[in-house]
Amino acid sequence: MANNSNTATARSFLQVASTEEVAPPLRVVQIEGLVILKIIKHCKEFSPALVTGQLLGLDVGSILEVTNCFPFPIREEDEEIEADGANYQLEMMRCLREVNVDNNTVGWYQSTLLGSFQTVELIETFMNYQENIRRCVCIIYDPSRSNQGVLALKALKLSDAFMELYRSNNFTGEKLREKNLSWVDIFEEIPIKVSNSALISAFMTELEADSPITQCDYDRLQLSTNPFMERNVEFLIECMDELSMEQQKFQFYYRNLSRQQAQQQAWLQKRRSENMARKAAGEEPLPEEDPSNPIFKPIPEPSRLDSFLITNQISNFCNQINGVSGQSFSRLYLMKALQES
Q1: Boundaries of each MPN domain copy (predicted)?
Q2: Which of 135, 265, 282, 326 is the most exposed place for a label (fewest CB within 10 A)?
């Protein structure tokens, strides 16, 4: 009886462990309003320089709660300074733990310039976080885009299929077709939900001033969007040049591949004619493949990761240009109607 009870206990423990391992997919990133204000303040103070910070909170089911954050000091490319930055993070976590504040790392935030955040460095940071944290997100904030009247805040994570492919470091065309992975499948955007306690909501309601009906916000009718559009177009042109360079790499690869195949066919025809002569002379034929011959050495296919990331950036710039130009046309038509009336 004791053995049966021990077996049942072990079986139940394994079932609980297996259920804990299988976590529900991440659906929502719930951020407190104070955390968003901290992120905006930190990113705007150092703009146009890029800054990063730590996100703290709780992983509860399908919701990732972000309850606190703190900024990272601006680092330089120096080992001693990087070590100081790591010590700073550990000291901040210790201090937060002492005052009984959530100190569980759930990701990081970083600023960006016109949405140019799709880089290999971001992917490597994600992979480093994934080694210690089961689920983490990156909050991207764009101060330049927010100046256009939009809260440019988004939560991103890497897709599971892309992380599996990145670990194998095999971004060949055959592998991508096998995994059915395209450039839109690298990042997954998670919806953001802003949460405030009831006391904070009541306090903000008390702080709201009674604005008169006649008060108008004329800044909304500002027609000049040239600086923002120009920067987006400049970045878009740079990305197109980089994509063209990536395409030239593939064209060079395919030219070398076709040249190698032609050399292999010529060598095989020569070897087959030589074998026919040897057979006629009663000699043993030679093998038709020679691994030591350099023309049979496979040419490595260039990685498609850079082209995927560049395509992501091009799509982002096009969406921003489309959104800003649409708002500009709406303002122009509105001003035209006001002048005619």
Answers
A1: 29-162
A2: 282
Type of residue found at 276: M
**∠ CA(77), CA(80), CA(81), 5° rounding?**
55
Query: Which tokens hold the place of 245?
Result: 């360079």
Q: Is 63 helix (H, G, I), strand (E, B) or coil?
A: strand
Consecutive H or E run containing 66: strand 63-71
Q: What is the pLDDT of residues 27-58, one digit of tens each?
A: 899 998 889 999 999 988 888 888 999 999 88
| Residue 156, strand partner residues | 138, 189
Q: How many residues does the chain have?
A: 341
Domains of the chain, by residue range, sit at 23-220, 236-340
**DSSP per-residue codes, 99-146:** TT----EEEEEEE-STT----HHHHHHHHHHHTT-SS-EEEEE-HHHH
Specify the pLDDT at position 274: 85
pTM over 0.85: no
pLDDT above 70: residue 302: yes
Helix spans in the chain (H): 2-21, 33-45, 79-98, 120-130, 143-146, 160-168, 173-179, 198-207, 226-280, 305-340
Angle (CA) 68-72-75 rounded to 5° is 170
Distant-in-sequence, close-in-space partners of 70: CB < 8 Å, separation ≥ 6? 53, 54, 56, 92, 96
Q: Are 97 and 103 in contact (CB under 8 A)?
A: yes
The whole-angstrom separation of Cα 34 and Cα 205 is: 15
Q: Which CATH class is domain 23-220?
A: alpha beta
